[in-house]
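Q: What residues go here?
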């Protein structure tokens, strides 16, 4: 069996949930999804939404070439179904691998549009996934309109200073509750506060305000308690990411020992990571 191509994409955490106001913003973190396109069919256990089937369908629907015989291998350290954009990462990595193997010549805008279409076809996104998909494939944060094509979707963008922040992810298991879009719209006042903070580039305050709105929309009082305690113990931001249940905690690097010690006293599994600034395998140039 030969590896025909391989590619990577990032996990990401939320700054603004797209269900609240119809605009979304996420930022990549240093957890990776690696996808290999191989010369033989393989059983894939990590594809819970049959997303790879949807990727192949959308690829064919757009008249793009596929190898005669191929399969997929996935390796990842991204927790699945917990708000860390694993579907966006899988879509981007798989499509980049296909692009490289078939010499299709797609740019990032086209990859993102295909990834969004694939996720919508698979039914594994409730908000359109455009902001999550941008974060999975590129650096920095982008406020996007998910109703637009990728090339026209960016409303605001920016970068964070590298190597000064630490991220702690509090894992609380896979999502078990259904997401009600109307409940998100009912929290528009708090989402608007988050959008205003984001527009002023107060990224971490925006993240926390967004987390408050998501917690209210999903009835997750426990998340509010955890976030408040994290901020009391030195976090500059603590919030639900995506629709949950993972909570992302951001602190300055010099505070990481204090935060690590505090979180070690909780009953949750903790992952430590950083904002993503590393070159991805199979990256397409913007």
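A:
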């Amino acid at each position: 069996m030969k590896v025909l191509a391989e590619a990577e994409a990032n996990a990401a955490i939320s700054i603004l949930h797209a269900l609240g106001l119809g605009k979304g913003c996420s930022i990549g973190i240093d957890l990776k999804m690696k996808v290999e396109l191989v010369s033989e069919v393989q059983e894939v256990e990590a594809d819970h939404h049959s997303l790879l089937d949807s990727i192949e369908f959308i690829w064919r629907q757009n008249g793009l070439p596929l190898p005669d015989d191929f399969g997929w291998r996935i390796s990842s350290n991204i927790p699945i179904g917990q708000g860390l954009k694993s579907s966006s990462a899988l879509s981007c990595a798989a499509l980049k691998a296909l692009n490289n193997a078939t010499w299709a010549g797609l740019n990032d805008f086209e990859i993102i549009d295909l990834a969004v279409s694939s996720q919508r076809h698979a039914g594994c996104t409730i908000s359109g996934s455009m902001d999550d998909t941008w974060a999975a494939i590129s650096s920095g944060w982008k406020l996007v309109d998910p109703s637009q094509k990728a090339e026209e979707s960016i409303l605001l963008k920016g970068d964070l200073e590298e190597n000064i922040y630490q991220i702690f992810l509090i894992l609380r298991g896979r999502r078990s509750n259904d997401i009600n879009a109307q409940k998100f719209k009912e929290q528009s006042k708090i989402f608007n506060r988050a959008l205003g903070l984001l527009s002023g580039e107060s990224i971490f305050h925006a993240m926390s305000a967004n987390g408050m709105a998501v917690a209210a929309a999903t009835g997750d009082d426990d998340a509010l308690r955890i976030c408040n305690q994290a901020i009391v113990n030195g976090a500059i931001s603590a919030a639900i990411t995506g629709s949950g249940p993972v909570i992302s905690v951001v602190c300055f690097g010099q505070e990481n020992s204090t935060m690590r010690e505090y979180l070690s006293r909780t009953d949750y599994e903790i992952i430590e990571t950083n904002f993503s600034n590393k070159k991805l395998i199979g990256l397409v140039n913007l």
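A: Context that may help when evaluating the design: The radius of gyration is 18 Å. The longest helix spans residues 86-102.
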